[in-house]
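Translate structure to sequence.
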């Protein structure tokens, strides 16, 4: 499948762009890190094929408009620092769900906030969304702080929402309404 076109979204230290097939090894490194994946809704990846499959799905979803799954590149060195997504895009309800992760060396520098500000601007602006949701496990304090900093509010707990590695996992549902968003 040829790589799909999507305009690059820029911030001071980052570039957000469509995932392409050559990202597979770096994407695997990101999603294979047990520390990065500690609060994720599936176990760490173990095979390059998982990265290739995810990239193909991301490209299909981008074409269909179902989801926007982007690479986060550090600027100007171009390293893959992480990935972020607006998925479950429901244009009829003007709603989508937000996902994000960064490689551990990039944590604690305000980079997730910087990336998500750009993605939220795209969601509320270009895509015309009115509500953006995120699901966060109760012990993922970094993610909760990040969402709170961006203006999200915790709306409640979804019990036994996911099964990961044979155990059930609760998540908290967070949401940001366009009217509460500070660009
Ligand atoms: C969650 C994650 C993306 C945060 O990335 P980050 O770049 O370190 O976050 P930022 O530096 O932009 O910080 C944003 C806010 O969260 C706070 N924060 C960051 N890490 C924190 C931590 N470990 N504990 C408490 N607060 C934390 C920061 O202080 C900052 O608040 P401030 O602007 O008021 O100072 C990163 O830790 C990560 O990739 N984790 C693994 C994957 C994951 O859990 N993704 C989310 C799934 S829901």
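Result:
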């Amino acid at each position: 499948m040829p790589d799909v076109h999507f305009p690059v979204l820029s911030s001071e230290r980052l570039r957000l762009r469509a995932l392409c097939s050559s990202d597979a090894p770096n994407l695997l490194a990101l999603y294979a890190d047990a520390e990065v994946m500690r609060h994720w809704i599936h176990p760490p990846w173990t095979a390059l094929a998982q990265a290739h499959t995810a990239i193909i799905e991301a490209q299909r979803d981008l074409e269909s408009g179902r989801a926007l799954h982007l690479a986060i590149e550090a600027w100007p060195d171009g390293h893959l620092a992480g990935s972020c997504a607006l998925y479950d895009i429901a244009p009829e309800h003007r709603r989508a769900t937000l996902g994000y992760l960064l490689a551990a060396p990039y944590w604690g520098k305000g980079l997730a906030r910087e990336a998500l500000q750009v993605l939220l601007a795209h969601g509320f602006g270009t895509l015309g969304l009115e509500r953006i949701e995120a699901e966060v496990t109760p012990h993922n304090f970094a993610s909760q702080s990040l969402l709170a900093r961006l203006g999200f509010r915790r709306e409640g707990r979804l019990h036994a929402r996911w099964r990961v590695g044979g155990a059930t996992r609760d998540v908290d549902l967070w949401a940001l309404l366009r009217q509460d968003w500070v660009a």
